[in-house]
Amino acid sequence: MVALQVGRQLELQFSQGGLAPEDRRPKANPSPYCDFCLGDASENKKSGAPEVLVSCADCGRSGHPSCLQFTANMIISYRKYRWQCIECKCCSICGNSDNDDQLLFCDDCDRGYHMYCLSPPLTSPPEGSWSCRLCLNEFHSK
């Protein structure tokens, strides 16, 4: 019960623009090469064009947004938080990577969320695309 209350407090702080716990840790040294095409920022080996690299804050692995199949909203969003690769992804609310079968990934920002950490919690993954509360406010409110 205490963990759930802490999770709710973190979600409230996070939704109000505060830093999530993982935002305070130092970032890993970024790899200068894309893990997918083996190019660098000066050349994406698939497209032949220069493209910025996105680097995991935890392990430093890098990828071009196009190699990672980032959407336009993900390209806007990843700069605003400590982006994590699929191997390092943890819940943006509780900061834990346990129960990875319960992690949802936002289709707009690529953050991870445990279904049970959401408010209200989800008991099963939604069908189709899913956006976190932050992205609903940023990209889908009118």
TrEMBL record:
Q: Which PROSITE patterns match?
A: ZF_PHD_1, ZF_PHD_2
Q: From what superkingdom does this record's organism come? A: Eukaryota
Localisation per UniProt entry = Nucleus
Which InterPro entries does the record match to this protein?
Zinc_finger_PHD-type_CS, Znf_FYVE_PHD, Znf_PHD, Znf_PHD-finger, Znf_RING/FYVE/PHD
Q: Which SMART domains match?
A: PHD
Classification via Pfam families: PHD
Q: Name one GO molecular function term.
A: zinc ion binding
Q: Which UniProt keywords apply?
A: Metal-binding, Nucleus, Repeat, Transcription, Transcription regulation, Zinc, Zinc-finger
GO annotations under biological process?
nervous system development
* PHD-type domain ranges (all copies): 31-91, 88-138
Q: Which residues form a coiled coil?
A: none
A single GO cellular-component term on record = nBAF complex
- Under which name does UniProt file this protein? Zinc finger protein ubi-d4
Instruction: Please give the organism.
Output: Frankliniella fusca
